[in-house]
Design a protein that fits this description.
This protein has 4 helices and 2 strands; from the N terminus they run ββαααα. The protein has a domain at 28-95. By secondary structure, it is mainly alpha-helical.
């Protein structure tokens, strides 16, 4: 189990005696979470690899793309299954429906 998940227990009371049971959710993958994990594991900062300033990290572009795709896939699938908040998942991945509303002013009765 993910150590980070222990920070977010879901507590339920089950059975006729109301026995306390803790369940730990699967946490969604995020770029921020990946960055924090790399720092904690002494891998260091990864922002240079993803920003690829001046093309210095061209050799790592395919790995960075795969990491982004894996995170996006996890978030979208988790949102579709209802494990994650679908509204937040949509916003994080630019999947929100956009509609244009046109308001026309009409004169009030008697004007």
């Amino acid at each position: 189990m993910n150590i980070e998940a222990r920070k977010w227990p879901r507590v339920q009371y089950v059975g006729k005696d109301g026995e306390r049971v803790e369940d730990y959710p699967k946490l969604p993958l995020t770029m921020e979470g990946f960055s924090v994990w790399c720092y904690k594991e002494n891998i260091g900062t990864i922002r240079h690899y993803f920003s690829n300033t001046d093309g210095l990290y061209d050799d790592f572009c395919h790995i960075c793309s795969h990491v982004r795709e894996e995170i996006r896939h996890d978030q979208i699938t988790g949102g579709l299954l209802g494990n994650y908040n679908p509204s937040i998942t949509q916003r994080l991945n630019g999947l929100t429906d956009k509609s244009e509303v046109t308001v026309r002013e009409q004169p009030l009765f008697g004007e």
